[in-house]
Specification:
This is Neutral zinc metallopeptidase. 41% of the residues lie in helices and 8% in strands. It contains ten helices and six strands. The strands form two sheets. Strands 1-2-6-5 form a four-stranded mixed sheet. A two-stranded antiparallel sheet has the order 3-4. With 297 residues, the chain is of the alpha/beta class.
Amino acid sequence: MTFRDDAQLDTGGVSSGGGRGPKMALGGGIGGIVVVVIAVLLGVNPNSLLGGSDGGGSTTQVADNAQIANCRTGADANNNVACRIVATKNSLDAVWATQLPKAGVRYQPPNVRLFSGAVNTGCGQATSAVGPFYCPPDHTAYFDTGFFQDLKTQYGASGGPLAQEYVVAHEFGHAIQNQLGTIGRAQQDPKGATSASVRTELQADCYAGIWAHWAARTPAPNGGPPILEPLSQSDIDDALSAAAAVGDDRIQKQATGRVNPESWTHGSSAERQKWFTTGYQTGDVGACDTFRARSLG
């Protein structure tokens, strides 16, 4: 998916900068909700999971906004990953400002923070090893842009633009869950093939699909034409490639040679593709009720 070259970008609500810290072997991958939100909801100090401390980490955090300083147009977004995240946020905000009220809730745009190595968050200090994640206490989605290269080289995704935009849309999906009051269900059953955690992640995939459904049909936040061009089949293939790449079964098979559904937290590759497709084909929040679904695959 490409952005209109002349689309005007708004960097409001987006910041960049962050000190480098030690990498940590924390799972999270796409949707670090497993590490972050479970800790918050269960009363665990997320600092102990994310690498911070009660007294504040030694890493100096500076929002210098250098990564987004030159993000002005859709052409910038088409050529720069940081600007692509800015543009995707603009599009997501436009779509959800229209779609979420249909579910009876006024949309509150989440913030976005781009960082490198490590960052202090409302959920504690996080490192790049957690992967992209959304933190409910500060209503912010965090991205180390280096993850998108990892998505291609380590996870095997296609690396196309919509593969990257899908990741951003997935994290915004968690922000939508937070506003709808459903994100807390993840605490009820954190592991397993049909667990509440898996259902939470698959619902975020479905919400990402809803964005894809409406993105090229929704006017820009400034009232101009949609900032994204219509989807091609290649775009959809890119998104499905990313969804498959971060399936629990695929990651487990690659890491250990075995698949253990009892330890799943995000869902299988096929399930992630299915729920993104459900959102994309329907464009309907009501179609994303993974918690009532008898079958997830």
